[in-house]
Amino acid sequence: AAILRSKGTKTVHGISGIISLHNLSNLVKPGQTSSARMWIETRLGNNKVTSLQTGWMVPYDFNLSWQDKVTKNWWLQLNNDVNIGYWPSSSVPDMKNGASYVAWGGLAQGFTYVTSPPLGNSNKPDPDEPDVTEVAYIRLLQLSDSSYWLNISEDDVEVYADVFRCYEIGYMKYLGKAIGHEIVYGGPGGECGN
Questions:
Q1: What is the DSSP string of the chain?
Q2: What pLDDT sits at residue 9?
Q3: pTM exceeding the 0.70 threshold for the entire prediction
Q4: Which of 87, 84, 81 has its CA nearest to residue 41?
Q5: Which residues, 6+ apart, have CB-to-CB distance to 51 below 8 Å?
Q6: Which Pfam families match (predicted)?
Q7: What CA–CA distance (Å, rounded) separates 91 from 163?
Q8: How far apart are CA 28 and CA 38, in angstroms?
Q9: Positive or negative, the Cα torsion across 86, 59, 136, 149?
Q10: Phi and psi (nearest 5°) for 63?
């Protein structure tokens, strides 16, 4: 994992971002996956988690989901104006009043005791001097509270990578209106451990 995740328990009713797309089909082996994702979830006691996740396979911009104020359904939206479909509130009852955790980034998975697949475009970013033409990114990160879309607060999020020798993430914070808040992430994979 190489993600930007929320630290607190603020109630969130939607997240969005623009994900770069990279073809790793010749580098990912059978039994492995490498994805760019955004997700929103509610964590309850006894390790119970209700989560809505989406990833991207072709280059379109989208909002992961936003919650309809009346029906409490969660919508998947393309280009901020085309509703693709929704998760009925009855299928995610624990998220009736919103979610408390969000994350953006990449996840690589594979069989235990086998080399791990690449992530992003397989390049590790230099978090101090990233070149977005060389690495994967997600930009224009936003959250929705109960009334409107907001830029994320730098104090409410943190970066997380579980195996830095294989994968890296950098949070670039706010880079102006066109890019907004941005993360850069990726890595070659390899001998990453279990």
A1: -EEEEE-S---BSEEEEEE-----TTTPPTT-EEEEEEEEEEEETTTEEEEEEEE-SSS--EEEEEE-TTT--EEEEETTTEEEEEE-GGG-GGGTT-BSEEEEEEEEE--TTSPBPPBTTSPPP-TTS--TTTSEEEEEEEEE-SSSEEEPPGGGEEEEES-TTT-EEEEEEE--TTT-EEEEEEB--BS---
A2: 73
A3: yes
A4: 87
A5: 39, 40, 41, 42
A6: Neprosin
A7: 34
A8: 21
A9: negative
A10: -95, 130
Tokens of 166: 């294989």
pLDDT value at position 187? 93
Residues 9/25, Cβ–Cβ less than 8 Å: no
The pLDDT value given to residue 56? 62
pLDDT of residue 64: 61
Q: Kindly give the parts of the chain with pLDDT less than 50.
A: 57-59, 61
Scanning the structure block, which residue is given the tokens 């949070």? 171
Rg (Cα) of the chain, in Å, rounded?
16
56 vs 47: CA distance, rounded Å? 27
Q: In what order do the strands lie in the sheet with 2-6?
A: 48-55, 33-44, 101-109, 2-6, 157-161
List, in order, residues 6 or more apart from 151 with CB less than 8 Å away.
141, 142, 174, 180, 181
The answer to whether residues 85 and 41 touch, using CB atoms and an 8 Å cutoff, is no
